[in-house]
Design goal:
single chain; about 210 residues; mainly alpha
Length: about 210
C-alpha cells in the first residue's frame, strides 16, 4: 500500500467521509482510463488474437465508468493468461472485476496502516513536547498546501502525514525539511515503494515497544 492508501485508511478511522471520497478517487477518470487502456494493451501481447486498439480504448472507458479502477483491472489481468486461451470478452473482464467491487474496505488493514496507527500517538506526543499544538497545526496547513493533491478535512490525517515525514527527517526542527520530505514521499508513493514507508515506522515501533 502507498502513502495515499495509508492516509485513506486513517481518514476512515476518523470517519471523515468527505476526505474518504476524495481519497477513493485520487486519480481523475481520464487518467484511470488511460492506465486501464495501457493494462489491456499490454495483455494483448499474451494472446494470438486480441481486440483492435479502438475496442481496447472503449473497453477501458467502459470499465472505469462502471466504477472499477485501473488498480482492480491490473489485479485481475495478472491471472487472465492462465484462465483463458483466448483474449477475454468485456463481459468476462467485468465478471472478474465484480468480486473486487464487493470487497469491504473497512476490513482492509495492511502493515503500513497498522504501523502508522500504532506510532501516531507516540510521535504526536514527542512533537508536542518539542514545539506545541499550535506549531503542529501550522505545519499541517503548510503540508496540506504544498504536498497533498486535494483538501483533507480530518485533522488526524494531516497530523499523521506530517509526523511520519517528520520521523523520516530524523526529527528535524526545520519545517522546510518536512515539506521536502513530503515531496520525496509523494514520489515514492507513485512508485509504490512500500519499504520506504514501512521501514522507518518499523524501527520506531520497535525502539519504543509500540
Amino acid at each position: 500500500m502507498t502513502f495515499i492508501k495509508a492516509s485513506y485508511d486513517f481518514a476512515k478511522q476518523w470517519n471523515d467521509q468527505e476526505s474518504i471520497n476524495r481519497f477513493a478517487t485520487s486519480k481523475s477518470k481520464d487518467v484511470q482510463i488511460a492506465e486501464a487502456e495501457n493494462i489491456l494493451r499490454d495483455m494483448t501481447f499474451r494472446f494470438e488474437r486480441s481486440p483492435n486498439p479502438t475496442v481496447i480504448k472503449m473497453w477501458a472507458s467502459d470499465i472505469i465508468k462502471a466504477g472499477y479502477t485501473d488498480a482492480m483491472l491490473k489485479q485481475v489481468c495478472v491471472s487472465i493468461p492462465f484462465k483463458f486461451e483466448r483474449f477475454p470478452s468485456l463481459s468476462d473482464l467485468m465478471a472478474l472485476l465484480r468480486p473486487l467491487m464487493a470487497v469491504n474496505l473497512d476490513s482492509t488493514r495492511d502493515e503500513l496502516t497498522d504501523l502508522s496507527m500504532r506510532c501516531y500517538p507516540h510521535l504526536k506526543a514527542k512533537f508536542l513536547r518539542l514545539t506545541g499544538q499550535e506549531v503542529l497545526d501550522k505545519m499541517c496547513l503548510y503540508y496540506a498546501k504544498e504536498i497533498l493533491p486535494y483538501p483533507v478535512e480530518a485533522k488526524g490525517v494531516l497530523e499523521q502525514c506530517v509526523l511520519n515525514d517528520w520521523l523520516r527527517t530524523y526529527f528535524s526542527s526545520d519545517p522546510k525539511r518536512i515539506i521536502e520530505q513530503g515531496k520525496v514521499s509523494s514520489l515514492n508513493a507513485e512508485k509504490g515503494d512500500i519499504l520506504y514507508f514501512t521501514a522507518p515506522l518499523q524501527r520506531y515501533a520497535k525502539e519504543h515497544d509500540l
